[in-house]
Amino acid sequence: MTKLSIITINLNNADGLKKTIESIINQTFTNYEYIIIDGNSTDESVSIIKQHSEKINYWVSEPDAGIYNAMNKGVIKATGEYCLFLNSGDYLINSNILDVVFHSKNPNEDFVYGNIMRLNKNGKEYEHKAPEKLTFFTFYFSSSICHQAIFYKRDLFQKYGLYNEDNRIASDWEFNTLVIIKHNCTTRYLNEPISFFEKNNLSANEEMNEMERQKALRKHFDEKTLADYEYFKQLRQTPIVSYNLELKSDFLKATVLFYLKVLVKIQLLFSKK
């Protein structure tokens, strides 16, 4: 059985696509299939795909209905045990990282995730560490886990559905919250940088992100969860949390969040008396 399906979506990003493809086909790990979903690009993207077609198991270039529609097309074509979404411009951190994940770590959990590398405002690379434990609290206050560092068991999409194509930003968050918090799928954190993430501007639209998250919560969760979300939303506006969100140090962020959790637990304890 194919161990991994790597899915790349692309639209008019030929240079980024080339970088992504090369990072995949140069892997020492070979038990994968590679799928590219191109949104009818008008630049050199299709030409680049054709240049590497012998290393690509499936590709298509046609109009789509957005990012999540393209990602869903990839899931539908996938046959691997796990899926990894590595969009054009993103790339695997080195040539043996997939060997590290699937041979050294040998995971079997539903949701396996690691860290990403990215650039700070000064253009310097740094490792952004994902939270070791995934709770509703950490989903709200921690930076979202990037799909470029997540290996999903493909049957999660068969059990719980594909990405919500009505969203423009928050469908990753919706799907992750659904399978981990509501359905309690098994998870495993790998303290390894998996890929380099080329941030896009779409995810910076906080107002749309908030709206789509609240809609997802109303769809999948009960009133108690919604109440917690509103409480966390108020906490987010407090000086200590606002300060924490601006911190660049993952260690300091973790420290502030730890003490914030303690304060929340104390408040909840006294509120029950």
UniProtKB/TrEMBL annotation:
Pfam families the UniProt entry points to: Glycos_transf_2
Keyword tags: Glycosyltransferase, Transferase
Keyword Ribosomal protein: no
EC numbers for this chain: 2.4.-.-
Native organism: Pinibacter soli
Protein known as: Glycosyltransferase family 2 protein
Glycosyltransferase 2-like domain location: 5-160
Lineage, highest ranks first: Bacteria, Pseudomonadati, Bacteroidota, Chitinophagia, Chitinophagales
InterPro entries registered for this protein in UniProt: Glyco_trans_2-like, Nucleotide-diphossugar_trans
GO MF term list: glycosyltransferase activity
Catalytic class of the enzyme: transferase
Superkingdom assignment: Bacteria
